[in-house]
Every structure is written in C-alpha cells, then in structure tokens.
Amino acid sequence: MARQNPQDPKAPQPSKPKYERDYKPPTFTIKEIRDSIPAHLFERNGWLATAYLCKDLAMAFSLFFLASYIDSPFLPSYLRYIAWPAYWFAQGVVLTGIWVVAHECGHQAYSNVKAVNNTVGFILHSLLLVPYHSWRFSHSAHHKATGHMTRDQVFVPRSRSEKGYPPADNDHNISVSHLVGESPLMSLACIVGMLLLGWPLYLFSNVSGQRYSGWASHFNAHSPFFLADQRLDVHLSTLGVLVVGGGLTYLAKMLSFATIFKFYVVPYLFVNLWLTLITFLQHTDPVLPHYREKEWNFQRGALCTVDRSFGPLNSMFHHITDSHVAHHFFSTMPYWNALKATPYLKAKLGEYYIRDDTPFPIALWRNWRACQFVEDTGDVLFY
Asked: What is the pTM (predicted TM-score) of this model?
C-alpha cells in the first residue's frame, strides 16, 4: 500500500484492496467440505508410507556416499567447488522431504498405528535435531487454531501498536527507525536472517509465535503451550536431540569438525531454509485473513493458508507445498492423497481456495515487504 505524502497529512487514506473490501468470511461446515472428497482418500497406508520413506533414505545415503569422493584425489580440486555446493543443495532437499515424513508421523498420517507413527517420527526428527513430541504438540495447537490472533502458534501477525507504528490517522508520522526497517537493504538482511535462523529460533524461543511471559521454548517442558501430561514426552524429545547432538560432537572429534560441517551441518542449514521459506509463504500473504475470537472457526482458520508451487521440488517435498490447504483441513490424510483431494476442495471452496504460482523468490520478497502488521481493531484482519 502506498504511503501518503508526509507533507500532506490531511490527504485521504488509500482505500483498502478490493479483496479486503469485498471479503466475506466463508460459511462452509466441516461436514460439507469433508463430504466433497472421496472417502478412500482419507485411508492411511503404512506400507506405502514406508516405501516412500525408504526411497528418501536411499537418496540421502546415495548422496552421502557420492560426497565421500569429493575430496578424493580422483576429483580435480577445481571441481570440488562445484561438487560440494551441489551436494549441499541436493541433500538439503532430500532431508527436507524426510522432515516432511516425520511431520506426517506427528499428525498420525503415516500409518494407522500410533506407536509406529511416533517411533518413526521421533527417530527421523531427532536425527534432524527437532524435538519431535514438543513440536508435535505445538504444531497440533497451530492446526487447531490456524489464523486465530491469540491462539495460533506460529507466524502470528503483530499489530500496528505492537510494531510501534503510529495510529492509522497519523500514519504520515512514521519514525526514522521504521523507515530504515522498511528499506530494501534491511528487508533483504531480515529475510536472510529468517531463512538461516528462523527455524531454530522458533524451537528455542518461540519466535513468530504468541508472546508469553517467561521462557517459551520447545525445550522447556513448562512452556505455556504444553500441558502437564505432555511434559514427559517433551523431556524425551529434548533427550533425543541431545543424544544426536552428542553423537555429532563425538564424530567431529573423531573425524574433524570440517567433515561434519560439510556432510551434515550445511545440509541441515538448507533444511532450515526450506522449512522456513515454505511455511512463511504458506501462512503469510496479503490476501490471507486473520481472525479474532468473534469471527474465527476451524474452517475459516484452515483456509488461512496458500497452496504454492515450488516446481520440480513439489514431489521432493511430498507436496506439502501445493496441497497445504487440504492438509490443514484434514491433517491425518496421507500426503499423497492430499494432492488428489485438492481439485475436489478447489471445486467446493471456489474463490476461498487460494493458490499462488508466483515464483517463490518473488513471492517471498513481495510478502515480506507487504505483510508488516495488522490493525489493532476489527475481527477480520488483513496485513
């Protein structure tokens, strides 16, 4: 939205975008939406899920095996500067797919057996330094309250006053610090910081989540988003991350830090990048509403997300990118069926189904610049 000329404080405020002016919250019931999808698409298949996982693991081990030859005498030294980045990118993509499988386990979508889901999910997420149960609990709360201004758990919009902006009728008096913060260079720096550190900061200190007093963290069993009967699983999840971290430290001493850095740390950073990029673009967009309690319900919240194509990476990410609306409505639906369910959802939801095929680097820049805050008043809010 264009800002008014500071020299003309009485100039009329720009009108809201048409999608915001004309927006009417949807009135679908969850039964209506579920009935629009063939029943067989809700069926889970642990054997098929395991086959997909084995394919991912085979790719990860193959890449690791090939990378073990990069520093060998057989490869010219100048090619190593190409081979290592190629390995980091490819392994980061594959490991993100494995992360998504663990995410499916957290939703109990991997198989019909809870013990199998949680065992597979715990192992996979621990290997990627994710506290499985801790994240599973907070992520479940996110799904149950997506788009709710006070109950959602991630990418919660900050209000105008929380961000320190002047009231809307005095918007021309923006401070120098905000002008600097909105500059292209600062925006770029913040985007890079988010992509590199956003995921671990969310786990450690609940960055982008609700604001709580005290240490709100996925590693603190007494965090306000955990229930008392969940604390043992939170401790177990922290232990899993510590065990893997200890193993990596031991290997670094045995082999060298540089070896662990090249084979594990850099691909791990790529996983963080993809996760943050994907989830930011799923839940942060100018056309997505957010609701206060008076107007929120589950169906409206589930529609507060965007399906987005990442091109050939969609299949590597198990279509968590381009079937995310279906996933938010029915999180126990297997990911391979969520893609099949999407056309049925699109037909049922009509204009309320949102898909954006803008190339993701452009969408990232656009949404970061456009999605600064929501207003302090109102029950249906847009950035």
From this structure: 0.92
